[in-house]
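During the no-cost extension, the postdoctoral fellow (Dr. R.K.) reprocessed legacy sequence entries with the updated structure-token encoder. One reprocessed record is reproduced below for audit purposes.
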Amino acid sequence: MIPLMMRLEVSKKENRGVRLWVPVFLAWILLLALMLVLSPIILLVALLSWYQGYGRSLLLLFPMLWVVIFNLSGLGLDIETKNERIFMNFL
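Re-encoded structure tokens follow.
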């Protein structure tokens, strides 16, 4: 399932910090529109470069991108330094 929200927490050691909920489904709508606009151009370039060996990987670009986006759900990233902690979670 495509993640719809992202929780971002930025905190310092001495205080509570900031928690933000970011709606990432708006980014997916923009990405889908961009992919629809670019698909004829990528198809043409893939057909022209098929004999050089790059065409197949260009045709698989969009399915691979969707697989990565669908597998983002549940991903958590935790970065901690001496003074700061950043936590990002896709929901």
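Strands lie at 5-12, 18-23, 76-80, 84-90. The longest strand covers residues 5-12. The remaining legacy entries will be reprocessed before the final report is submitted.
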